[in-house]
Design brief:
It is elongated, with a radius of gyration of 36 Å. It folds into four domains: 3-52, no CATH class; 56-272, no CATH class; 275-379, Immunoglobulin-like, CATH 2.60.40; 384-415, no CATH class. Strands 7, 8, 10, 13, 14, 15 and 18 form a seven-stranded antiparallel sheet that branches. Strands 11, 12, 16, 17, 19 and 20 form a six-stranded antiparallel sheet that branches. Strands 24-23-26-29-28 form a five-stranded antiparallel sheet, with no helix packed on it. 33% of the residues are buried. By secondary structure, it is mainly beta. The protein contains three helices and 32 strands. The chain has helices at residues 33-39, 166-170, 231-234; strands at residues 3-4, 12-13, 30-31, 41-42, 44-45, 51-52, 56-62, 82-83, 94-95, 99-107, 115-125, 128-129, 131-135, 158-161, 179-183, 185-190, 205-215, 221-228, 248-255, 262-266, 271-272, 275-284, 290-296, 303-306, 314-320, 325-330, 336-346, 352-356, 360-364, 370-379, 385-391, 405-411.
Length: 415
């Protein structure tokens, strides 16, 4: 029994039976599953044209459940949480600085030789940073499972450190370290970064990288994460908070030199840009006096500040994602007065502030706003009087002369 294998090898067993002078041939071909998968081909009996099994790559992204579900969970229980389509606020929620999990499902790959896949992501849109660099698939969505729905995929992956993008580090940003991960294969190397529409961050820019690997199964899974640019790294008006539409694009460029351009996007409404409220105490003179504050609603809580020349004079409430009105009120210690309350809003988005009562501020916080309020206090002067008595005449020389006096009373304290 003979078989033809195109570009690979297979194991086959055959049985023949002859009858009569014509030698009627009847063959039974039993292909082992390992041979079929190992060759990456469909094979046929001698004389029949071989057929290539089409290798494939399929890009998914993590729909980690919409708010109010935490951005750190999801994509851990059902394959349906890994989606081919685009994401919006109805499907997922991410915070500024989170990483979007991606997976690439491969099919019908040969288990001999190496494979190379190229992925690309949009780094800037109109010079605003979108997905600024790559990191691990579980950097933010901690329990994400790229194996869901993939036959035979389980256990710990093989990993390969993601190199830092020199454009990112050159801008003074330190990426969160991460790794590519593959189940059912071994990553053997990654390329240098390429920039299809030019280096730098001006305008609309993209970056790409090639991952080379071997496959131990025909359907390995590759996973990584795309980091959502933050204001902490790029400045208040230079990060993804300043972009509208769907700025978070990642795409498959090619597998082994061919393949379609699969593009996955995340709309800006699925990304929450937290706000913050910072309270600073400015006391004159500085010292050890503790100034109590009441603050609410939650997650704000009561606190005390001491302006002793250290960071004890500052309270920060960060990562606020409930955009509502907050109130902060100072309780004055004895002997002190409140001189001024002033707030500054960075990354303004329609929010406002005003004085609340005699000793507080009311802050209407909107998404992405960073509000800093300074309470200035001084010591109340001690009450005091100064009495001055002066004579109008410079001298007298006889009994009975009249002396005229001027008495002046001065306020030298808080009277």
């Amino acid at each position: 029994m003979n078989t033809t294998v195109f570009g690979g090898s297979a194991t086959a067993t055959g049985a023949t039976r002859t009858r009569g002078r014509g030698g009627i041939f009847k063959g039974l071909l039993l292909l082992t599953q390992a041979a079929l998968l190992g060759s990456g081909l469909l094979i046929s009996p001698l004389g029949v044209a071989p057929v290539l099994a089409a290798e494939s790559a399929d890009l998914d992204q993590c729909a980690n459940d919409p708010a109010p579900s935490p951005s750190s969970d999801g994509c851990s229980t059902s394959a349906s949480e890994w989606v081919n389509g685009n994401l919006n606020a109805a499907k997922s929620v991410f915070l500024e600085g989170d990483s979007i999990p991606y997976r690439m499902k491969f099919g019908d790959l040969a288990t001999s030789g190496t494979h190379t896949v190229i992925i690309e992501w949009d780094t800037t849109k109109s010079s605003k940073h979108a997905i600024d660099y790559l990191t691990s698939w579980n950097a933010s969505v901690l329990d994400a499972n790229p194996c869901l729905g993939v036959s035979g995929c389980s256990g710990s992956p093989n990993t390969f450190a993601i190199p830092a993008d020199p454009q990112v580090t050159g801008a003074g940003v330190t990426p969160i370290a991460g790794s590519f991960a593959i189940w059912g294969g071994t990553i053997t190397g990654v390329s240098a970064y390429s920039y299809s529409n030019g280096a730098g961050f001006t305008g609309d820019k993209s970056a790409s990288i090639a991952i080379t690997f071997t496959a131990s199964v025909s359907n390995p899974v590759l996973a990584w994460g795309g980091h959502i640019a933050s204001r902490a790294d790029w400045g208040n008006n230079n990060s993804a908070v300043a972009i509208t539409g769907s700025p978070y694009h990642t795409r498959l460029i090619s597998l082994n030199g061919s393949g379609g351009n699969q593009d996955r996007s995340l709309k800006e409404d699925a990304v929450i840009f937290p706000g913050s409220i910072t309270i600073i105490k400015q006391a004159t003179p500085e010292g050890s006096t503790s100034f109590p504050f009441t603050a609410g609603p939650a997650p704000l809580s009561n606190f005390n500040l001491v302006d002793d020349g250290t960071s004890a004079n500052t309270k920060v409430f960060s990562n606020l994602i409930d955009f509502q009105t907050y109130t902060v009120t100072e309780s004055l210690p004895g002997g002190w007065q409140l001189d001024n309350r002033n707030c500054v809003i960075a990354s303004p988005n329609g929010g406002s502030w005003d004085t609340s009562g005699s000793n507080g501020v009311s802050i209407d916080l909107e998404e992405g706003e960073l509000v800093t309020c300074t309470f200035s206090n001084s010591v109340i002067p001690v009450p005091g009087l100064n009495v001055t008595k002066s004579a109008a005449e410079s001298s007298v020389d006889a009994a009975g002369d009249v002396i005229h006096y001027t008495i002046q009373v001065f306020n030298t304290g808080n009277v």
